């Protein structure tokens, strides 16, 4: 394999046997950056690990479970009442804590960066829409790890005005700093509803090295950049991570910021945290040939951040002049499935699509929202087109429980992050047999 002959010795120990390259578009080999092919991505509600995108800023560390440990440090200024100091946590220590599972979508903030590059040059790996995947993550709650290290379990102090953060740093090298590190607010972590995990499992198995073995952060509803892999330390402190990936990356800079003046802007704008509302058409793919005058089942995914639920997905066949409702599928954590928001009730939906998602109409009354519940998972959607017109274009947009929808045009920013413009697709068309349609 040419991969093994890497010139750079840091990349001589990459887990190539764990990478099924036929499922990916590889955007860079060193570091390994690969996005999922879209048609395969919507075949399963829970993305099989071999189809989950991979996003790295350096070589993949190779650490055995028994050799691995991380430190948990509590900064005394941030938490004067807590026991302070540094503790070492092993893999066995993690397995002794109560174990949880959460189905959560992991999306890179650079997902769909190609749409911003089409406007003006951007800085970063050029991704299409294949850097979002939905997994079942297992491990212990980060809040329990912190409580075991001395953070008060009922942390809630309305008069404490210092921002407190939990910083995560990784083993291994990163391209822009001494290591990969990032942070999120302590209050977010301590809220048990937010399900921030120190994850050791993905889809019922040990994490793959590419996904952070032995342990990574899972921060549902938050951009992928904060889901630090190969954990080396966790630190409670009274300031954000000072790492490059918190301070000089993963921010939406204003439109006048560019490669020559961005230094003036980094400190003035906040680090990104929650994902925004997003939807993508996965079928048809740009290379697929769609038959004119035949039925077609369009499919895709939609997601939002911060625990906000995707309330509906809308599809337009006339470039956004009029919209119709797509059928939305979401399997709930209890293993039940719900399906809602369909107007084109004649559609036979997933029965014809090899989908592992169930289309049983256990329709919930979506007007009765449970406001305590949060949605961390993506939803899949489908839309039945009875007869593909000769000028076929398809557009989708989603709405979330915060009332947010997607902008009708992409808004450029220098780092090319958070592109959630309404998704347009103009498929390749072929004439069906007996049709008068001319493909020219
Ligand atoms: N240590 C480390 N953690 C990391 C990264 C990294 O390069 N190094 N990349 C981050 C980014 S930007 C994303 S989108 C996710 C990707 O996770 P995955 O490779 O498991 O899909 O991991 C995050 N955690
Ligand atoms: Mo990312």
Automatic annotation (TrEMBL):
One of its GO terms (biological process) is sulfur compound metabolic process. It holds the Pfam family Oxidored_molyb. Residues 337-357 have a biased composition (Low complexity). Transmembrane segments: none annotated. SUPFAM superfamilies: E set domains, Oxidoreductase molybdopterin-binding domain. Its cofactor is Mo-molybdopterin. Residues 271-426 form the Moybdenum cofactor oxidoreductase dimerisation domain. Residues 335-366 are annotated as: Disordered. Keywords: Metal-binding, Molybdenum, Oxidoreductase. Residues 57-244 form the Oxidoreductase molybdopterin-binding domain. It comes from the Eukaryota. GO terms for molecular function: heme binding; molybdenum ion binding; molybdopterin cofactor binding; sulfite oxidase activity. The keyword Metal-binding applies. This is Sulfite oxidase. The lineage of its organism: Eukaryota, Fungi, Fungi incertae sedis, Zoopagomycota, Kickxellomycotina.
């Amino acid at each position: 394999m040419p991969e093994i002959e890497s010139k750079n010795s840091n990349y001589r120990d990459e887990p190539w046997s764990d990478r099924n390259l036929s499922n990916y578009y590889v955007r860079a080999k060193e570091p390994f950056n690969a996005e999922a092919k879209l048609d395969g991505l919507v075949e399963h509600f829970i993305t099989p690990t071999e189809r989950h995108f991979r996003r790295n800023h350096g070589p993949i560390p190779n650490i055995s479970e028994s050799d691995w440990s991380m430190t948990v440090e509590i900064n005394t200024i941030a938490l004067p009442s807590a026991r302070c100091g540094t503790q070492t946590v092993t893999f066995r220590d993690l397995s002794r804590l109560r174990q949880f599972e959460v189905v959560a979508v992991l999306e890179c903030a650079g997902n769909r960066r190609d749409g911003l590059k089409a406007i003006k040059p951007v800085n970063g790996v050029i991704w299409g829409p294949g850097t979002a995947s939905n997994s079942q993550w297992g491990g212990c709650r980060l809040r329990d790890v912190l409580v075991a290290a001395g953070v008060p379990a009922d942390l809630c102090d309305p008069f404490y005005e210092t921002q407190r953060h939990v910083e995560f740093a990784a083993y291994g090298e990163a391209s822009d700093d001494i290591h990969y590190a990032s942070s999120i607010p302590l209050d977010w972590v301590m809220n048990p509803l937010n399900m921030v995990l120190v994850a050791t499992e993905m889809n019922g198995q040990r994490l793959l090295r590419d996904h952070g073995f032995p342990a990574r952060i899972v921060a549902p509803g938050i951009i992928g950049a904060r889901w630090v892999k190969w954990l080396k330390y966790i630190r409670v402190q009274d300031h954000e991570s000072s790492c490059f990936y918190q301070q000089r990356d993963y921010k939406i800079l204003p439109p006048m910021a560019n490669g020559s003046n961005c230094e003036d802007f980094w400190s003035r704008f906040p680090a990104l945290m929650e994902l925004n509302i997003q939807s993508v058409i996965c079928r048809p793919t740009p290379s697929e040939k769609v038959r004119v005058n035949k039925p077609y089942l369009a499919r895709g995914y939609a997601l939002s951040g911060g625990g906000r639920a995707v309330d509906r997905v809308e599809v337009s066949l006339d470039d956004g002049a009029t919209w119709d409702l797509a059928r939305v599928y979401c399997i709930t954590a209890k293993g039940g499935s719900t399906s809602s928001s369909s107007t084109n009730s004649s559609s036979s939906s997933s029965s014809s699509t090899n989908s592992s998602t169930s289309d049983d109409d256990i329709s919930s009354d979506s007007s009765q929202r449970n406001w305590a519940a949060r949605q961390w998972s993506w939803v899949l959607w489908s839309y039945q087109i009875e007869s593909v017109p000769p000028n076929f274009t398809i557009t989708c947009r989603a709405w979330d429980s915060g009332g947010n929808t997607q902008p009708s045009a992409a808004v450029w920013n220098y780092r090319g992050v958070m592109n959630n413009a309404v998704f347009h697709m103009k498929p390749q068309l072929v004439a069906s047999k007996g049709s008068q349609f001319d493909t020219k």
